[in-house]
Write a structure and sequence with these properties.
179 residues; alpha+beta; Nucleotide Exchange Factor Grpe, Chain A, domain 2; 3-stranded antiparallel β-sheet; 4 helices; globular
Length: 179
């Protein structure tokens, strides 16, 4: 059903056949289709002439293109997978196979997309932290949410990750005595 809905993107809006899904499923599908449409518009606006396979020679607009596409694919992947697993939702399984082929193509080209969620955090990491939040039940600082993944091209960073870091409660806030 998802693949059929995605096929409708090749037709103008007035000729598209709308799927009959429940409201929650429809909202999720519209969000995913919106991500595909954005990705398609970025790809259509990019000239494939002069693509470089060397990071030293790669123009900034080419790096920005790969970083934008990779970020959008990563966000799309987050919506297709069941939380905490690598398994797609049942209604996403057919579309996910096609998605995986695009993901693998990027990997073969040398693009690596790194999600930092649940990784331990230390100040020396090359990440942009937009917030530190106190989180119950953790003993050390760790990334609790990735806003943008870090993107590497042939092991060279082309986009810095943006994250929210969770930190343990301080002894003073628990009512304990600080040293």
């Amino acid at each position: 059903m998802i693949l059929t809905s995605l096929r409708q993107l090749i037709y103008p809006n007035e000729f598209r056949i709308r799927p009959s899904l429940q409201k929650a499923e429809m909202k999720n599908l519209q969000s995913i289709l919106g991500q595909f449409e954005k990705l398609i518009s970025v790809i259509q606006g990019f000239s494939m002439e002069g693509l470089s396979s060397d990071t030293e020679e790669m123009p900034k607009e080419q790096m920005r293109f790969f970083a934008d596409c990779s970020t959008r694919l990563w966000r799309l992947r987050q919506k297709m997978l069941q939380p905490g697993t690598d398994k797609p939702y049942a209604e996403m399984q057919k579309a996910y196979r096609h998605f995986e082929s695009v993901w693998d193509t990027l990997a073969q080209f040398g693009i690596e997309i790194q999600d930092h969620t649940d990784m331990p955090y230390s100040g020396g990491l090359s990440l942009e932290v937009i917030d530190f939040q106190v989180v119950d039940g953790i003993n050390e600082e760790k990334v609790i949410e990735t806003i943008k993944p870090t993107i590497y091209y042939k092991s060279k960073s082309i986009q810095m990750g943006v994250v929210i870091v969770g930190k343990p409660e301080s002894p003073k806030s628990k009512g304990g005595v600080g040293i």
